[in-house]
Amino acid sequence: MSLNAIYFDLDGTLTDPKPGITRSIQYALQKLDHHSIPTEDELTWCIGPPLRASFVRLLGAEDSADRAVSLYRERFSDVGLYENGVYDGISEVLTKLRQSGHRLFVATSKPHVFATRIVEHFGLRHHFEHVFGSELDGTRVDKSDLLEYALKAAAVDPARTLMIGDRSHDIVGARNNGMQAIGVLYGYGSKDELIGAGALHVCATPQAILDCISRNFLAEPATPSNAGSGVNLS
Question: Which residues are catalytic?
Answer without folding.
Answer: 9
